[in-house]
Design brief:
This protein is an alpha/beta fold. The chain has one domain: Lambda Exonuclease, Chain A. 48% of the residues lie in helices and 16% in strands. Strands 1, 2, 3, 4, 5 and 6 form a six-stranded mixed sheet that branches. A hairpin with a 5-residue loop joins strand 5 and strand 6. It is globular, with a radius of gyration of 20 Å.
Length: 274
């Protein structure tokens, strides 16, 4: 078994990592998902805090997400921004993201920037959300105390909650998502959102909608609407959280070799790790 010695785990924080105690205080869906994907990847990202350059795809996604946040907040304030205003926000988001975390673009920056804006144009043209619909909540930090289940606190951020209790999460993708695969692969995240919404509002969500902005030659929007989380999904999430807690307590950083390794930012570190 590949493990990180206890002494090493307590001395890597200077690189931007966190102690096991910190990581067990609360749990987020993103950390759970990384832990499920590969425990060694989790170690490099969250425990050791190994910094990596931001990818072009992540930069585009972050810039697009910033504009969608602005659009949702504007509607919450009963405002309807023009397409020019949204484009100006996109340009500002692009520059701000670049300043905070530079990307090694090569010759692709301008094309990627155009791609991001084409995604947004497609979204505003095809979105199922009316431009004058006021959201129930936008980019809200929420948490659920799961102490009664013997689990740490669950935390997260809901991108958007529409009136009626539909939770909306925005995604960008390089290929058209398959609904069945989306429901399975994002089950941890969507179930966590359901629990967080119920804990915060005392109501059951009406559905969870995943809005995928697809970066094909002709960009498109694919919306996948999922039913409220069922009891078996919540049970599965709790078991994943239990596995997370036990794995961190044991410093159990087992790698998960597979096709996904080709795109992992920690590929070289993993190959040479003892």
């Amino acid at each position: 078994m590949n493990t990180l010695p206890a002494k090493e785990a307590s001395t890597v924080l200077s690189g931007g990592g966190r102690s096991i105690e910190q990581l067990l205080t609360s749990i987020s869906a993103s950390r759970l998902t990384t832990f499920q994907q590969c425990r060694m990847k989790f170690m490099f990202r969250y425990v050791l805090g190994v910094a990596k350059p931001k990818s072009a795809a992540l930069h585009v996604g972050s810039s697009v997400h910033g504009v969608l946040k602005f659009w949702n907040m504007a509607r919450w304030k009963n405002q309807q921004p023009t397409l020019k205003q949204l484009h100006d926000v996109y340009a500002a988001q692009w520059n701000d993201q670049q300043e905070r975390q530079p990307v090694n673009w090569g010759d692709e920056q301008e094309e990627e920037k155009k791609t991001g804006w084409r995604l947004l144009e497609t979204y505003f043209r095809e979105s199922p959300i009316p431009p004058d619909e006021k959201p129930e909540a936008v980019e809200v930090n929420v948490e659920a105390d799961l102490n009664q289940h013997g689990l740490p606190k669950l935390v997260g951020i809901l991108d958007l909650v529409r009136h009626g209790g539909q939770i909306v999460d925005f995604k960008s993708s390089g290929k058209t998502p398959d609904p069945a695969q989306v429901a399975h692969l994002l089950n941890t995240q969507t179930t966590a959102y359901s629990i967080l919404y119920r804990e915060t509002t005392g109501r059951k969500e009406s559905s969870v909608a995943l809005h995928h902005l697809v970066k094909t030659k002709n960009p498109k929007l694919v919306v996948t609407v999922l039913e409220p989380a069922a009891d078996n999904q919540i049970t599965r999430l709790f078991r994943v959280m239990e596995s997370y807690v036990k794995g961190l307590q044991r410093a159990d950083w087992v790698p998960s070799p597979g096709m996904q390794c080709a795109s992992c930012e920690f590929f070289n570190e993993c190959r040479h790790h003892c």
